Description:
The chain has 2 helices and 8 strands, in the order αββββαββββ. The chain is α+β, with helices and mostly antiparallel strands. The strands form 2 sheets. The chain has a 6-stranded mixed sheet, with helices on one face. The protein is globular and about 35 Å long. The two termini are 27 Å apart.
Amino acid sequence: MNQSGSLFLCALLLTACNNGGETSEFAYDGPVTNVEWNRTASDYRGQDGLLVAFQCAKNPDQIGVGNVWGTGMYSDDSSVCGAGVHAGAITFQDGGRVVFEVRPGLESYAASIQNGVSSSAWGTWGGSFQIKR
Length: 133
């Protein structure tokens, strides 16, 4: 794909791109959706490479967080806000914007405890996402 085609594709997917058509995790300037803490990424399954931003409200009591499956790569039925805390992008105390990239499913997801969030292991799943910031 040529540079202009890459730039068009990036714009079409609402990703922020630099002049070379590469996605940039720090330059995301697309729409941000206010969500509940149990909101997942499953609505975006199959749109691999799409960057999406969710705004997570402050949640110091950790109410309604939902489940998180995986470490680094999360199954798309995981709480995006919960995964955002797990990955260190936001905190329960402050909430904030979580930018994630839609990715294909994996054969397995690893469990871990990070930033006060326990994620669970899971087997094969049809869609994933990765926290970008």
